[in-house]
Amino acid sequence: MATDYDSPRKTDDDLGEDSLQELQARRTDKTSGSIDIDETDLAESLELPGADLSNEELSLRVIPRQADEFTCTRCFLVHHRSQLASEKNGQQICRECAA
User: Average pLDDT per run of 10 along the chain, which is 99 residues long?
Assistant: First the structure.
């Protein structure tokens, strides 16, 4: 909601003059935005540690290492050449591992 900073502000006296109906309407508006969560739906979506996932398939596309990338010899992650911190005896180390 946009705020008009040039409009006159309510004083403490003005705040106390709100009608009871207006205050009750504000209170019901605030509670209408809450979401009811069903515990059974929540429990079905949780995965427990050690759950049997043998029938699940994982499909992802593997992209080979590009010419401008290297594999860090400490963390074994593939990084861009801009992340190369040092190269000693053919061992390439990224900036995070060198820090």
Answer: 74 63 71 63 72 84 93 95 92 93
In degrees and rounded to multiples of 5, residue 71 shows phi and psi of -105, 125
Cα 38 versus chain centre, distance: 23
Q: Tell me the C-alpha to C-alpha distance, in Å, between residue 48 and each of 17, 38, 41, 45, 58.
A: 54, 19, 15, 10, 18
How many angstroms separate the Cα of 3 from the Cα of each of 7, 8, 12, 14, 26? 9, 12, 19, 19, 18
Q: How far apart are CA 18 and CA 24, in angstroms?
A: 10
Q: Name the CA radius of gyration of the chain, rounded.
A: 29
| Residue 77: per-residue pLDDT | 95
pLDDT value of residue 33:
56
Helix/strand/coil for 75? coil
